[in-house]
Amino acid sequence: MKFTKFGKALLISALSVGVVLGVSSCITSYTVGFLYVTGTVTAENTNLGIVSGYKIDHDTGRLQRINGLPVSSGGANPVRAVLTSGSRFLYVLNRGINAQGGADCTADNPCQNSNITAFAVGGNGILTPQMTFYPVGINPIRLIGDTSGNYVLALDQEAPSSAACQLALGPSVKTCGDVEVWKIDQNTGRLSLILNAQVTAANGKPLPYFPVPANPIDFVLAPGYVLTLSGTPESGDVVFPYTYTASSGQLTLNQNGAQPLGIKQGTAIVNAASVIYVLDNEAPDPNPTSAASQILPFTVGTNGSLQAETGGIVPDTPTQANPIYLMVEEKGKFLYVANQGNNVLGQNAQSGIAGYFIVSSPSYQLQPTAPADFGTGAGPQCIVEDPSGQYIYTANFNDSSITGRVVDPNSGVLNNLRVASTYAVNGPPTWCLVDGRTD
Hints:
Blueprint (H helix, E strand, L loop, with lengths): L4 H22 L4 E9 L10 E8 L5 E3 L5 E2 L5 E6 L5 E6 L20 E7 L5 E7 L4 E8 L5 E8 L3 H8 L6 E9 L6 E3 L16 E4 L2 E7 L2 E8 L3 E10 L4 E4 L5 E2 L5 E7 L2 E6 L13 E7 L5 E3 L5 E2 L7 E6 L5 E6 L2 E3 L2 E3 L2 E7 L7 E9 L5 E6 L5 E6 L4 E7 L6 E3 L5 E3 L4 E7 L4
Antiparallel strand pairs: 1-2, 1-35, 2-3, 2-4, 5-6, 6-7, 7-8, 9-10, 10-11, 11-12, 11-13, 14-15, 15-16, 16-17, 16-18, 19-20, 20-21, 21-22, 21-23, 24-25, 25-28, 26-27, 28-29, 30-31, 31-32, 32-33, 32-34
C-alpha cells in the first residue's frame, strides 16, 4: 500500500502524538503517604478537637485534603497522636480542658474528660473512630508507641496517689507523675492497661501505672528503657529511667535514680538515630545574652543512665528559640530542629527550623548547614519527613498552617516546594505524623 505525501504527513503526525502521549503517561504522580494533623478547635460549637489529613504528592510534595477528613478527635485539646505498626490504628490523646473551659491544666485546676480515642485507618487514609479509653492519671501530656506496635504509652503530669509516689520513688517524695502502658489488641485496636508488677497500692492491688519524678515534661523510648524528662526552673531537670520489657510492656525500676542534667528549661527528649537528644530553652553560661536554646546529645549507658558526649552540646541557631522537637532525615545525614519561637532576654527569637550536618564520626556531633535556619509558619509544634525522604513538614500553632519544604540531599538546605509551600489547616494544630501506607 502506498501513501500520498499528505497521507504520510498525517501518519507521521499521528505517530508523534502517540509518542508524546506515551511519554506523558509514564510521568504520573501518585500519593506517597498521608500527613495527619491534630487541631484544638473545630468550626462547630462542640469544644472537640479534630484530626485533619492530607495526601502527599510524590513528585511535588503538594498536599491535598483526604476526602472525609477532618473528623472529630474524640475529645477536647488533642495534644499527641501515634500510628501503630502496620498503620492499622491511630490513637489520639485528648488532654481535655479545665473547669473554666481552658487548656491550661494544672494540679490545682486539672484537665477534665481526658481520653485516648482509637481510629481505624482505612483505604485512601480515611479515619473511622472506634473506641475511647480513659487514662487513670491526671493531666496527660504525651503519647508514644513502641516499635513492636503492641503497646502505646501515656505520660501524665500528676499520678492519682501521692502514697504511690512514696512507695515507688522513696519516702521523701510527696508528688509525682506517671507513665501508663496500654496493650493493643491487634484485631480490634482495643487498649488494656498493663499493671505494675513491682508496686502495689495500700489495698494490696497492683498499680495501673508507673510513678515518675514530679513535673514530667516529655518521655521517650530507647532500646530497653523508657526515659522521662522532669523538672522545673527552680529545681533543675532530671532524666529518670525505667527498664522496658517489649514482650510484656512491663516497666521495672532499676538501680539508677533520677539523673541531673545541669539544665533548667528542658523542652523535649528525643531518640533519633540511636542518640538521645535533650532540647533546652536556656541561655548557656557564661554568655547569658546568647540564643536561649541548645541541643544536648547523650548515649544510653548501664541501667539507662545517660552518658553526656564530650564537646557535644550544640547551640541552637541564634535567630530562633524554644526548640520543641527534632528529627534525623532517613539517610542519617542531616538533623533538623523545630523551634517554636519566643522573646527571650530582650531578643526577638523567631519560629523556624535549624539544620545540621551529622558528623559521621563521632555521630553525635553536629555542624550547622549553610544557611543554618529556615522559615516556617508561626509556632511549629512538630516536624516530620515524608515516606520518600524528599519533603519535610511542620504544623504551626500560631497561624494555623502547615509548611512544606524540599530537602536538598547534598547540602541539607530546605527549599520551598515547587508548588505552594504553606497550607491553611483547621484549628491551631498541635501535632503531626506521617503514614507511609497508602493502600
